[in-house]
Amino acid sequence: MSTELKQVNKLKKTSRRNNNLNEKFIERLIKISRVTKVTKGGKKLSFRAVVVIGDENGQVGVGVGKAEDVVNAFKKAKTDGRKNLIKIPLTKSLTIPHGVVGDKGACKIIMRPSIEGSGVVAGGAVRTVLEVAGVKNVIAKQLGSDNLLNNARAAIVALENLTTKSQVLKKRDLI
């Protein structure tokens, strides 16, 4: 009996792994930084990776990982990004439905929809987040701090605040 249960559990685990592999996610590295922690015994060196992960179809997430080597930091950041995935609404012209503002720390991001063919007009980490999310036409402006991690997280906050017309109608009890 117990061997059959182990085999069933093993199959469930492999099917979960395969489901995660079947989804086509794009990972883009924003920044790798070398960080040190000063202890009584000296300085402890490690690396921090900031990664944006998305499927170019409305799903996007930002992940941060820290490890003693770059490869493990990148893997941890990818895992963290998958945990923090959000789904955003896109219009037919692959832009955002309305203007939106996102704040994180000292960073402020302003995003506005743009006409088809204008492309992604944004800088730094915000451009990366929008491209990985699948947004093709948008204008974005960063205000305040130029910290890459906070700018990426502020862009995620802004994208979380997006609503569709049907969501607004439902909220107002008009449907």
From TrEMBL:
The keyword rRNA-binding applies. NCBIfam families: rpsE_bact. It is found in: Plastid, Chloroplast. The N-terminal domain interacts with the head of the 30S subunit; the C-terminal domain interacts with the body and contacts protein S4. The interaction surface between S4 and S5 is involved in control of translational fidelity. GO terms for cellular component: chloroplast; small ribosomal subunit. Residues 25-88 form the S5 DRBM domain. One of its GO terms (biological process) is translation. Part of the 30S ribosomal subunit. Contacts protein S4. The keyword rRNA-binding applies. Belongs to the universal ribosomal protein uS5 family. Signal peptide: none annotated. This is Small ribosomal subunit protein uS5c. GO terms for molecular function: rRNA binding; structural constituent of ribosome.
